[in-house]
Amino acid sequence: MKRTGIATRVLAFYVTVYVTILYFPVLLLPVFSFNNSATPKLPLSGFTFKWYESLSTNATMHAAAWNSLVVGASAAVLSTILGICAARAITRYSFRGKGAATGLIMAPLVLPEIIIAISLLVVLLGLGLELSLLTVIVG
Length: 139
Fold this sequence. Notes:
By secondary structure, the chain is mainly α. It has helices at about 5-30, 50-55, 60-90, 100-110, 115-125, 135-139.
């Protein structure tokens, strides 16, 4: 079925408006980072680099950035290894429960991250494990 010209234009307009509304606040964040005011508001009260200067001297932010890098790199490597192993097993072998295994592997794609995170927190606390970078990486 071929789309009519008006339907294509309406869809293109709708997608353009939707994406603009969705990403406009994200595009404004760098602009507000140079604002002299402590709160993000318009009109801007002046141009400054003071937020970047305070960021460069804040040890807590450095530690948080380092933790993010460690968790991100570790989770990426671990996820890649597990994903390759799971993909090979699913595609090359026939076994009972293959559909269930595939569904379990695909579940994080459709479940909101907050649901997974809270469920993982409940399980970890129920097991009496301490929360750490390792639990974030493995989770």
